């Protein structure tokens, strides 16, 4: 049974996991820097890379220890090659390269978003073609996947990512980073009171900055008029509008790109209302929702994706650079 040790460090989580090829999780360790970044209202790249440096050795040791196997026994070392914060990516890359060099193991550089996509295999095997709605702090993309090595971006955000908009709207209502889970919870208590405009964008692309600005203008107007802003109602209005935008574009994409499977990927896939809306409205193709625990960044997802690279013989060398703005369409990891 093949095994992979994977490392993730692209943003503000340091993580290590060991999985076998049947996707049994032998270990999965994640430490988050959220509490530190919350003080600044968002991720500070320099702080993030320093913290990865402090955490990486103990997280990797813990991942190996909990797996019950030795590094000698794994078939490859995988890490996130991009996209992400360059300083953060370097820390995971350096750790993975040190292990690969010392133990003479093949090295796999995984695209972060492929990790978010392939984590869905923990639920069930994917039937292609797949339409993935990738929604995270850095990305909002509709990706059409013909097979496990053919990814096409058919829609993308023209400005902010949806997770980024969640985080910014949370700031408007004075809630801490990350804003997604807070807005998810507050919106459940909110009522249809405020109206925000549904973004108007041609084709399969998204836009969230107008919506975010409309929320900001609304809060300023209320403050100027001495009226109270009902946080729950603003969270409700923002969430319903943002998610309706995502759902409509996904439905439109399905008309043009009939898929056998639709799946959610990325941190925003943890959103309870998005999961509900997709379940209620996606009929025909099979819908897969990623396990809640693995929606936000972790190394289990990097290992899940890495098995596909291993199958295709896609490896990187010790001198391969990290790629902070790598596209999912790029196959920059083939030797
Ligand atoms: O995938 P991820 O962990 O990191 C990136 O690759 O960007 O996603 C983090 C993003 C943050 O913007 C966070 O606010 C959002 O995912 N998020 C959520 C929820 N949980 C996390 N957004 C909406 N609802 C949630 N429940
Ligand atoms: Zn992510």
Order of helices and strands: EEEHHEHEHEEEHHHHEHEH
Bound ligand species: 5'-O-[(R)-(carboxyoxy)(hydroxy)phosphoryl]adenosine, zinc ion
Contiguous uncertain segments of 5+ residues: none
Distance linking N and C termini: 24 Å
CATH topology of the largest domain: Nucleotidyltransferase, domain 5
Strands side by side in the biggest sheet: 3-2-1-4-5
CATH-assigned homologous superfamily of the largest domain: ATPase, nucleotide binding domain
How would a textbook summarize the main sheet? 5 strands, mixed
Mean pLDDT: 96
Question: Which architecture of the largest domain does the CATH hierarchy give at level 2?
Answer: 2-Layer Sandwich
Alpha-carbon Rg, integer: 20 Å
| Global structural class | alpha/beta
* SS elements, strand count: 10
Number of domains: 2
**Name of the level-1 CATH class of the largest domain:** Alpha Beta
Helix-residue proportion:
40-55%
Strand coverage percent: 15-25%
List the helices and strands and how they pair.
Layout: E1 3-8, E2 13-20, E3 25-32, H1 34-38, H2 45-67, E4 76-82, H3 86-103, E5 107-111, H4 112-118, E6 130-135, E7 140-147, E8 150-156, H5 162-172, H6 179-189, H7 209-224, H8 231-256, E9 261-265, H9 272-281, E10 286-288, H10 300-312
Parallel strand pairs: 1-4, 4-5, 6-9, 9-10
Antiparallel strand pairs: 1-2, 2-3, 6-7, 7-8
Helix pairs in contact: 2-3, 4-10, 5-6, 5-7, 5-8, 6-8, 8-9
The structure holds 5'-O-[(R)-(carboxyoxy)(hydroxy)phosphoryl]adenosine and zinc ion.
């Amino acid at each position: 049974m093949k095994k992979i040790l994977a490392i993730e460090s692209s943003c503000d989580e340091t993580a290590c996991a060991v999985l076998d090829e049947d996707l049994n999780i032998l270990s999965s360790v994640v430490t988050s820097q959220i509490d530190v970044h919350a003080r600044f209202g968002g991720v500070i790249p320099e702080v993030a890379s320093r913290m990865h440096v402090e955490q990486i050795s103990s997280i990797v040791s813990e991942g190996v220890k909990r797996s019950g196997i030795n590094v000698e026994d794994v078939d490859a070392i995988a890490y996130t090659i991009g996209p992400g914060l360059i300083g953060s990516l370097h820390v995971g890359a350096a750790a993975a390269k040190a292990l690969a060099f010392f133990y003479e193991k093949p090295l796999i550089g995984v695209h972060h978003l492929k990790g978010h996509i392939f984590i869905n295999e923990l639920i069930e095997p994917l039937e292609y073609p797949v339409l993935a709605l990738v929604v995270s702090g850095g990305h909002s993309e509709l990706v059409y996947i013909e097979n496990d090595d053919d990814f096409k971006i058919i829609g993308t955000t023209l400005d902010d990512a949806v997770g980024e908009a969640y985080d910014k709207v949370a700031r408007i209502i004075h809630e801490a980073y990350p804003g997604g889970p807070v807005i998810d919870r507050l919106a459940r208590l909110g009522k249809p009171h405020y109206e925000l405009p549904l973004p108007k964008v041609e084709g399969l692309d998204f836009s969230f900055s107008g919506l975010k600005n409309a929320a900001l203008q609304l809060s300023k107007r209320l403050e100027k008029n001495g009226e109270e802003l009902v946080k729950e109602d603003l969270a409700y209005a923002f969430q319903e509008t943002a998610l309706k935008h995502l759902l409509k574009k996904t439905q439109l994409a399905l008309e043009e790109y009939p898929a056998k499977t639709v799946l959610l990927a990325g941190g925003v896939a943890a959103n309870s209302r998005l999961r509900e809306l997709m379940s209620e409205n996606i009929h025909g193709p099979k819908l897969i929702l990623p396990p809640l625990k693995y929606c936000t960044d972790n190394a289990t997802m990097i290992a899940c994706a890495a098995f596909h690279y291993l199958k295709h013989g896609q490896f990187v060398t010790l001198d391969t650079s990290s790629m902070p703005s790598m596209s999912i369409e790029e196959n920059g990891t083939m030797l």
